[in-house]
Amino acid sequence: MPVDGDYEPSPAQWVRDQVAEYESSGGIRANTLRDTGMPIVIFTTRGQRSGKVRKTPVMRVEHEGEYALVASKGGAPDNPVWYYNLVAYPDEVMLQDGPEPFDVTVRQISGEERARWWERAVQAFPPYAEYQVKTTREIPVFVASRK
Fold first, then answer.
1. Burial state string for 4-28 with b = 16 or more CB within 10 A and e = fewer than 16
2. Least C-beta-crowded within 10 Å: which of 19, 37, 96, 131?
3. Rounded percentage of the chain residues whose pLDDT exceeds 70
4. Which domains, and CATH codes, for the chain?
5. Euclidean distance between CA atoms 72 and 61, whole angstroms
């Protein structure tokens, strides 16, 4: 079930630009984090306060058809806003990794499962390890599974 409603682009210009270019090209362009060459995916959710449709690029951490969504916010002391959207609407999420978005459900993970996914995330994007050192919070990890 697609996430329907009014789309409100990110207040960050680079995020707006990346999402627009990624979607308009079917994932062919703007599919890496700026100039790093490291792949990203786009997920769509509903804003927990506004109810508006939101789209967010995150690092591509895929394993056997599931994806980790790592709420790192660069190691900031607080969670990114999109963390609260996923908590509020875990069944109203779409993910795009290539030409077409697909419906997913997300769940926040912990314990050994989080440790396995965290290792995969750090392999995909090594700065995550530095981000965890910078903050006292345990960086939340969600797993997105195709519906």
1. eeeeeebeeeebeebbeebbeeebe
2. 37
3. 99
4. 13-146 (2.30.110.10)
5. 13
SS3 content of the chain, % helix, strand, coil (to 5): 30, 30, 40
91: exposed, middle or buried (Cβ count in 10 Å: 0-12, 13-18, 19+): exposed
In this prediction, residues 93-97 reach a mean pLDDT of: 98
Helix 111-124 to helix 127-134 angle (10° resolution) is 120
Residue 135 has pLDDT above 90, yes or no: yes
Check pLDDT > 70 for residue 30: yes
Query: Is 12 or 1 the better-scoring residue by pLDDT?
Result: 12
**Assigned token pair, 62:** 């895929």
